[in-house]
Design a protein that fits this description.
Blueprint (H helix, E strand, L loop, with lengths): L10 H25 L4 H27 L8 H22 L4 H29 L2 H8 L7 H5 L8
Amino acid sequence: MKDTTPIKRHPAMVSFSKDHHFGLLLVWKIRQGLTKSVEAGRIGKYVLYFFSEDLLKHFEDEEKWLFSRLRADDLLRIQAEEDHAAIYQLIKDIGKHTEDTALLTKLADRLEKHIRFEERELFNHLQSVIGTDELALIEKRIGNDSKEIDEKWDDVFWI
């Protein structure tokens, strides 16, 4: 039987986990749009918008506040950085081919896998190796207010 005990998250990591909720919501929106046969270009434009308004800052914050706290040869850091690089490349590719449903599907799958990895493995690892003083600094980070992002976007194709 799978353990369903909630993971105890240090307060310094909570804002990153909240950002992840909105990343998973992006994954859901992409899949909803594709399931409803929404024109891929509409979905692609939203993906690029969401990335520039939210996900890019989140990635930069993780790289600055979290990944940099681990040794360069730390395997989980390497995986996280490789995931980010792959997602950056997918966003670049979507920017060139907004109508490509295969790219949108690939992004949704990759982003979901990456977020699950961070939540289930990387964050626990970080909490075990980052010192108390550093965690206190990270805790002061202000996360994204992703709720406002959709208020600026008219095309709610996922509904």
